[in-house]
Amino acid sequence: MTEQFLWGSATAAYQCEGAWNEDGKGASIWDEFCHSDKNTTGITGDVSCDFYHHVEEDIRMLAEGGQNTFRFSISWSRIVPKADRVVNEKGLAFYDRVLDACEKYHVIPNVTLVHYDLPDYIGAQGGWCYPGVADEFAYYAAVVFRHYGDRIPLYVTINEPNHNAYCNYCVGNYPPNETNLQHYCQCAYNMAVCTAKAIREFRKLGLKAQIGVVQGCGPATSLLDTPDYQEAVKYCNYFCNDWILDPAIKGEYDPQLIAAVQSRGIDLSFVKEEDLAVMKDNTIDFLGQNIYSRMLVKPNTSGITAFTVNNAGNNDGSAQAARETRAIAGWFESDRDPNTKLNHWGREIFPECAYNTLMERKRRYGNIPIYVTENGHGCYDAADENGFVEDEERIEFLSNYLHYILKAKQDGVNVKGYYVWSTMDLYSWINGYKKRYGLVRVDYDDPARKRTPKKSYYWYKQFIQDHQDL
Ligand code: BG6
Questions:
Q1: Domains detected in the chain
Q2: Looking at the record's lineage, which domain of life comes first (predicted)?
């Protein structure tokens, strides 16, 4: 692959494809969840922005916006729709079309094997906690590697194991909607085994392509630097970062982390020597790092274990407004810096976190190549009568974060690419279609799903042009 800096934007299968049951696709846990009573809004990704039927248009627009790379994910249940493991040729053909369009427009694909949408037949057996999930994943991954090979230069095994496990088993807002720390640990462990076993399949083929994993949060940090605050930071990092990244990058768990997890009464009998051996020999080539916000923590004085998110999008900036918080009794709890802004969904906007995240990754993991695989601002967009959105708020967010990302690169972090979340508006997990992230607006009232580039699309194009020397 060429050594040019990658400038692009990202999507994920369930959030944009639609065509949820077309051409032999099987159901994923998100199809199942969204069609069930547990989905209190009734909003689904059944059609979404219908990328399935807009592939050429979306990739052409991306390229016309000056971008040279596109991050998307493959829907596992399009490729292996049922538990019988029969491969769906029409599913493979769909992503061939996506890759054809990438080639036509000189766009480098960066492809994730699973972005939250586990097949429902695995969900029915215990989902990410099913002990057989890693073998199923390795089978599916091998089908993908053999079929697409080096047409895809950058593969990602799993999007955000940390956030996925966290939402599934701590907050409980993603299927299977549980709050269970034991299952959180088991899920995160199984995901690490999935990554390692998929990489073992990948290496067998001797491809030139590279493979990585995408992490969803940055390192924890605190307002004070006293020993009790340092402890809170350490435990939060065990929980959100090290538990995921150490096995993927170093091929092993930190024994102190294992001891800390056990001291909480987590039963680690699911950890198997043979899995640890696979992890040791099969680590990633690059790290994908998603950057949205800071994880600010303090010592846990409440004695409470609780996790909250704001899926209502009603944060008005007041002290009482619902925000994202996480707390584990005895370990850490979220802190609030009154000097920073929150978005409507209660998430802090803190551009410096981009710099701190990247520098901390370098400190812990050395010169590993890093792609910023997502960075974006979710907000309520207002379109004029032509569908045009003057999204100054998004431009301000992106330019402030980019400033710190490029500063980290200048200060020696091996940053190789950057992706705006998202290429076009798409389904936001639980938040539906009102929370928008796209560089391109999608008109959901229009059956044809008309696309209109936003002001941020043109701003990004110019930004890329101005940074050709990277
Ligand atoms: C990332 C996910 O964590 O956050 C994306 O990888 C997601 O899939 C994005 O859409 C924004 O989250 P949300 O909940 O605001 O859509």
A1: 6-466 (3.20.20.80)
A2: Bacteria
